[in-house]
Amino acid sequence: MSEGDEGLDYASSGVDIDLEGVSVASLVGALSGSVRLPGTPGAPVDLPGGFGGLVEFGDNLLALATDGVGSKLQIASMLNHWSGVGIDCMAMNVNDLLCVGAEPIAFVDYIAVPKPEPEQHAAIGASLAEACRIARVTLAGGETASLPGIVTELDLSGTALGWLPKDAAITGANIAAGDVMIGLPSSGIHSNGFSLVRKVVEVSGAVYDAPAPFDVNAANRDIVRMDDAGDDDITLGEVLLNPTRIYVDPVTDLIDSCRDGNGPAPFEALHGICHVTGGGLSNLLRLHNRLGWHISHPLPTLPEFDWVQQAGGISDREMARTFNLGMGMVLVVDAMHANAIQEWVSARLSGTQTVGEVRDHGHKVTHVNPKIVFEHY
Question: Which CATH architecture is the domain 180-367 placed in?
Answer without folding.
Answer: Alpha-Beta Complex (3.90)
